[in-house]
Amino acid sequence: MSKERNPSMPPESSDLSQRAQELRNLLQRASYEYHVLDSPTLEDAVYDQLYRELQTLEEQHPELITADSPTQRVGEKPATQFTSVRHHIPLYSLENAFNQDELKAWEQRWQRAADGDIPDSVQYVCELKIDGSALALTYEDGLLVRGATRGNGIEGEDITQNVRTIRTIPLRLDWAAPPKRLEIRGEAFLPLDVFEQINDERATAGDPLFANPRNAAAGTLRQLDSRVVAKRRLDFFAYTALFPEDNDRSIATDNQWDSLEQLHSIGFRVNPNRRLCESIDDVVAFYEDWSSDRHDLPYLTDGVVVKINSFALQQTLGFTQKFPRWAIALKYPAEESPTLVENISVNVGRTGAVTPLAELRPVQLAGTTVSRATLHNRDFIAELDIRVGDTVIVRKAGEIIPEVVRVLKELRPDGTQPYPFPTECPVCGQPVVQPEDEAVTRCINRSCPAILKGALVHWASRGALDINGLGEKWVDQFLSRDLIQTVADLYTLTEDDLIQVERMGKKSAQNLLDALEISKQQPWSRVLFGLGIRHVGSVNAQLLAEHFTTVEALQSAMPETIETVYGIGPEIAQSVYQWFQVPANQTLIQRLKDAGLQFAGAASVQQAEQQNEAIAGKTFVLTGTLPNLKRDEAKDLIQQAGGKVTGSVSKKTDYVVVGEDAGSKQAKAEQLGIPQLSEVQLLALVEGRS
Ligand code: IVH
Q1: What is the mean pLDDT of residues 576-588?
Q2: How do strand 301-308 and strand 327-331 relate by DSSP bridges?
């Protein structure tokens, strides 16, 4: 029974906190019904009134504000920058299939990989592939504590403040006894009407337009001011729930289909257009059903994601380097359209590659305006005989930059000429070369401003040294004033040098110097990425830096040794090796070392954080031949997760990983009662799935 409150007496604080709790619950439920279920039960005016009551209560008693209060969705102050965070569990991407045959080939591939371990009937879950931006959300004890972008799958950016503005993402799970930690994966996207509205506003304001809803969503998520984000009506579909610390699995469902339902019941919006299929033919039917219907949806989709329903079978199949073996994206074909080639221009990249581009009469394609297409290289233009004035078919698919598929020669006007590919670099005027075994034409002038500029911009970029404020504009100025020639010169710049530069005031100069100073603290993996060695993207740089913990170790390694790093192939190894052989590069490293950049470092702080608790500090022994992993690969995996690998089984051994033809070590493990793991179990442990 509730006690009567005397209106003339000030309410007791416990009553107030109870009322605040009541209001939060009411408002959260109403918001879920409105945004997720699309069936509001509370009138807008009533919602507003309750919201205001809570707001007033919180204003008068700030101690009553909780992180999950609906009033706390929008931050007060804009962020100054985003920090990068290591994902608790990496985000994989999906392999693509473009037609039925490729889908069926995938079915055969996973069946082979299962090696006879296949249940009689296998179900597939079909979900629409939403064309947005992947998010990783972390809930602790039911509370949203972190929202991050996908980034490179290993590290993303912490955009929690912005994620909190998305109404279909619950700040607190609707779950009486939530797990200690829950990782949610899903796609943030902008509805098409919001996208159009944003672009209309940008056009009016004279701001550059977003090319497509996906870019607009990604751009919005990276807005520093969460008040702006809140206005943009981002939305979110959840598709994966991972329970990193669920050892008994009692809270998790055992299949994808039920887990989607579970996601919905704890407060997420889950795409209703899904189907549980009993065969690959059912999957194809779903794909065909949606091939035209998808155009009526209020958001963009670019395919169907097909997932094996059973988590047990998913676990048996595991992952390749990049993809889960148990899922595939069945993509819709790219859209094509004719348009006119208005001009052909060339761009010189940071590797000196001279890339021709077609400047097109703007055309709508797959929800975006296309006005340029890559022409790849000299041979491509010659083969298709693409000329200025031609009408061509352009094609665009998902991530891929639009490309020219063919020329409609019957529409070619009189007087056109074959395109004369430049023989000189359009930037520095030096002759270009086309190495015999390469399709690419290159400028090989090491001092070509385009190459220097590319190298500098890359060094300063977000994934590399992340030097705030050092964009193309300043780089151009520094180069034209001969202030710098290499990235090492950045670190000898003085305030006097900088203030000579047009429009650079004392304050900007100091900010830039500060940013350069901060960049010296960036970890060795980022420095390695920043060097711009061919084939060394951010993921490879991280893999290499984790293995070679000093630059000296990497510098003196032979290609064969570099190749032993898990994930690094011969081409990458060769490229790294060759890069370090060049004297100018050796000088560069020395100068950067002298400047105080990081060229060593074991696991970074973030890496330590992500170390897998099940493995960190534990001792493993490997014995026998594992079905997929080579001995070194298994060893690397364990070490990367913070574990130790030793040669012999003793009482101190925590796990023995057992493969085929295991001998005395397995017997010893049995004798000592040490737990044994199969390859699959090891992978599950590494991936935090067990
Ligand atoms: S599952 C390991 N399901 O597609 C599982 N992804 O190339 C990986 N996406 O990065 C993802 N809708 O951003 C999954 N229903 C869906 C999806 C989906 C869109 C995106 C996601 C991912 C990309 C895969």
Answers
A1: 92
A2: antiparallel
